[in-house]
């Protein structure tokens, strides 16, 4: 592990832990159970895929003897192809979603904009907004750490950068060009770990505060959770009518949605 990654992860973990201890998920209520469960399932799938990619890239580096630096092409492949396929396979299509991102300034923007700033692009609910903000808080801390290292002259891997990477770092101002693609994947995995930790802590409160019915949702369409969850939730009421129920009481014991990934996969990092 490089000095950059160790320093970045150490600072990000410290700041994230402080935020979690001070705040937690205060905006998540009983009505948010299904959305929160979906976010946990998606985060678990994303974390596993990012860790798989990091292992693949590490093995590739050992084989080739070359360091694969961060690039926008790798970012798009990792996020939009590989990880999105994993999330889609574990996603509940019957709930609203939330999204956010962390902006890094162009050199001229630093004069009037906060660098490493978080933007929530789709709130979903107040609960989900808080979840995605906590996720991006990890990226913000890592971004600030990389920028501090750059100001201090500790730009590791600089000799490995190609022309696009040097231009991206110098003229675009994106500190991720200081990273390897493996480090990028590990930072993303850590952000999803943060989500899972916060959700798990809040889930214990919800189990104490919410009635059992909050953890059971009737499924109206097999496409919402996938066919296996649809079949697994089959029940009959007192009149004999067949219903399909999504049971969400236990995060780990109650299964997440499950769909097969597309064949062929568009993810080339295998």
Summary tags:
single chain, 270 residues, mainly alpha, three-stranded antiparallel β-sheet
Task: Write up this protein.
The protein is mainly alpha-helical. The protein is 54% helix and 9% strand. The strands form two sheets. A three-stranded antiparallel sheet has the order 3-5-4.
Short description:
The chain is mainly α and 270 residues long. The protein has helices at 3-22, 33-64, 72-89, 126-151, 163-172, 181-209, 222-225, 227-232; strands at residues 99-103, 117-122, 216-218, 234-236, 242-247.
Write the layout of secondary structure elements.
Blueprint: H1 3-22, H2 33-64, H3 72-89, E1 99-103, E2 117-122, H4 126-151, H5 163-172, H6 181-209, E3 216-218, H7 222-225, H8 227-232, E4 234-236, E5 242-247
Antiparallel strand pairs: 1-2, 3-5, 4-5
Helix pairs in contact: 1-4, 1-6, 2-3, 2-6, 4-6
Shape: globular
> Mean pLDDT across all residues, rounded?
88
Low-confidence stretches: 16-22
SSE ordering = HHHEEHHHEHHEE
What fraction, in percent, of the residue positions are helical?
40-55%
Our measurement of the CA-to-CA distance between the termini, rounded to an integer number of angstroms, reads 22 Å
Largest pleated sheet: 3 strands, antiparallel
- Helical stretch count? 8
Q: How many beta-strand runs?
A: 5
SS-based structural class?
mainly alpha
Walk across the major sheet and give the strand order. Answer: 3-5-4
How much β-strand is present in the residues?
5-15%
């Amino acid at each position: 592990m490089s000095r950059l990654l160790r320093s970045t992860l150490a600072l990000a973990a410290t700041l994230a832990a402080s935020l979690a201890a001070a705040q937690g998920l205060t905006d998540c209520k009983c009505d948010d159970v299904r959305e929160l469960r979906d976010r946990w399932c998606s985060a678990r799938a994303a974390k596993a895929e990012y860790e798989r990619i990091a292992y693949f890239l590490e093995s590739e580096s050992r084989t080739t003897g070359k360091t694969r630096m961060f690039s926008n092409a790798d970012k798009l492949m990792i996020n939009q192809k590989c990880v999105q396929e994993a999330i889609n396979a574990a996603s509940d299509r019957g709930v609203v979603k939330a999204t956010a991102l962390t902006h890094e300034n162009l050199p001229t923007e630093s004069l009037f904009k906060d660098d490493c700033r978080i933007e929530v692009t789709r709130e979903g609910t107040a609960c989900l907004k808080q979840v995605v903000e906590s996720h991006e808080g990890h990226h913000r801390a890592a971004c600030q750490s990389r920028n501090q290292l750059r100001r201090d002259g500790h730009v590791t891997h600089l000799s490995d950068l190609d022309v696009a990477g040097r231009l991206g770092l110098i003229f675009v101002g994106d500190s991720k060009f200081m990273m390897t693609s493996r480090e990028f994947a590990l930072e993303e995995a850590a952000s999803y770990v943060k989500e899972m930790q916060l959700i798990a802590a809040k889930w214990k409160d919800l189990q104490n505060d919410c009635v059992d019915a909050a953890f059971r949702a009737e499924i109206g369409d097999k496409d919402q959770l996938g066919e296996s969850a649809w079949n697994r939730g089959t029940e009959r009421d007192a009149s004999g009518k067949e219903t399909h129920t999504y049971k969400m009481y236990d995060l780990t014991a109650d299964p997440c949605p499950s769909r097969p990934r597309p064949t062929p996969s568009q993810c080339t990092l295998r």
